[in-house]
Every structure is written in C-alpha cells, then in structure tokens.
Design brief:
By secondary structure, the chain is of the alpha/beta class. The protein has two domains: about 220 residues, Spore Coat Polysaccharide Biosynthesis Protein SpsA, Chain A (Alpha-Beta Complex); about 100 residues, 3 Solenoid (UDP N-Acetylglucosamine Acyltransferase, domain 1), CATH 2.160.10. Helix content is about 20%, strand content about 30%. The protein is built from seven helices and 22 strands. The strands form five sheets. Strands 1, 4, 5, 6, 8, 9, 10, 11 and 12 form a nine-stranded mixed β-sheet that branches. It has a six-stranded mixed β-sheet with strand order 14-16-18-20-22-21, with helices on one face. It has a three-stranded parallel β-sheet with strand order 15-17-19, with no helix packed on it. α3 packs across α6. The longest helix has 12 residues. About 40% of the residues are buried.
Length: about 325
Amino acid sequence: MKAMILAAGFGTRLFPLTIDRTKPAIPFLGKPLVGYVAEYLKKFGFDEIIVNLHHQPDSVISALGDGSEYGVRITYSREEPAILGTAGALDNVRDQLANETFLVINGKIITDIDLIKAIKFHRENGAVATMVLLPNVAGERFTIVKTENERVVGFGGFPEKNEHGENAPLMFTGIQILEPEVFDYIPRGVYSDIVPTFYLPAIADGKFIAAYVAEGRWYELSTIERYLDISLAMMSPKTVITGTGCDISENTDVSNAVLWDNIRVLSGARLSKVVISDGVTIPENSIYENAAIVRADMLQRAAEIPEKAQKGYFEGDNYIVPLALA
C-alpha cells in the first residue's frame, strides 16, 4: 500500500519560522518534522511514499532526500504555479494511486496511532474512505467530525468550551485511508480541499465513510505555541535542545529553549521558553521569555507578513514574536 504525505502548505501560523522552509521541514527534537512522519509510516510497512510540494519545496527535499535515510522510497509531486488543495494534490498523482487502497497523512503531526488497526477497521467495514479520529478532550480548535454508528455523517464548527473531557467531540487526526473510488469525485485539474470535493458529496450519496476512533499519542504542530509547548514536553527532563554550530557563553541563563542551528547567545543573556531560528545572535545582557526569534533580515525574504501570522517587532538584528504559552 502506498502513502502520501501532505507537505505543500505555507505554514502561515508558524511564520516567521517558515520563511525559508515549509512547516513539515522545521526541526523537531533533532530531525525534520516530516522525517518523523516518514519513520512512522515505515514502522507500519509503508515504504513507497509520495510527498507533495509547493511552498519552499527544496526544504522538504533537503529534509527527506530519496527517503533512504528513513528506509523508504520517496517520489515528489510539485504543485506549480499554485497550491492545489488536498483534492487537487490527489488528482495530481492519481496515476500512482488509482489502483489500490492508499493512505494520506498530514506532514505536521507526531503520533503513535496504530495504522494496522485502522486499516483493518477500514477493510472490515468495506468503506470507501476512513477518517482516523480522536476525542478532542482538551476542547481545542479543531473542526468537529460528526459520526453515527461508526460512520462519518458530517462536520461541525469548533467545540464549545464545555465540550471536552468525557463528552469530548471527535476531531480528525490528519490520517485517512482511501479507496480509488475517491477519484470518481475528484475532477481533473481541481484546486480544492477534499472535504467539499469528496467527503460531503460522498456522504450525501450514502457512501460508507468509516469513523475509526483511535487511541494513542497525537500532536499537531501548526502554531508556534504548539510547536514550542510540545517540544518542551517531549524534551523533558532535558530543558534545552540545540542544533549544530551553537555557541552559548558561560555567563548565561538558558532554560526551556529550542535553539536551531548556528545560534550565539552572548554573555549575560537570559532565555526562557523560546524558540530561536538559524543564525540568530542574542545580544549581551538581553532577556527574552515566551518568544520566537528570527534574524531581522529573514523578513526581507517574505513578500508580506501573512494575515494569520502572529505580530512581532524588530529589535536590533532580530525579529521577536511574543508568545502566549501555557
């Protein structure tokens, strides 16, 4: 069975960390985020993987190469000049996927959900598609997936504040198992998401869309706060992780920090709950807490600051984005 990793998105909510790379290519605990996804798929027997590309495509290719480092074979699907959406991404490679069951997974997640159990559930139900779901116990802002009798029947908005815990609504994990029949609903040359193009019409036609409610760990790293919070939680008991070429002066106080490559922290600096991108120098005696920091000259590479991006400010040679961390 083949798998497809979705890695074409702009990562606007992770801006400015995604100025020079796409979201799945950001470093996470010592390797690119999308590398974890490739290793996860390999664990469950997927060794032929398609990866779609659009924003900063070379960053993903640099992270994954031909896949041999992760024990898989990777082919790439470029979306040019415009991003195609999930349905369009599938249309773009339908010749590679239209002959057998296949799996699609988001390139921005960390999980240990058992895919073998999900595929078994999919086949036992004779489903045209299976959405892998989890209870949204924290009541986070993920679209509600409505289900009845182990099938998906529709989609809602975001959960209310009291919709969590034992009565938590279900949310989509970004993992879906699809039959070639999905292409009956996807027109050639479409620029669209898969929900309006396939799921809603298929549900209206009475197709069985299976709702597999999984168990296991699952983390989605779509915002800077989530990226840093999850990094810090998984680093424990270690409190600082550094990339290559970092130089931290002795007279500093650095804790709960994610430092990418080639970072200098000068004498007297105090850092806590920060993520610092490549090549940043933290000046002497400076204090930063709850922040993402990139080089100011990186902003020159962006045509504009995305609307969904958190606002920051320039300070010397750096650009600082204040964060609201838990």
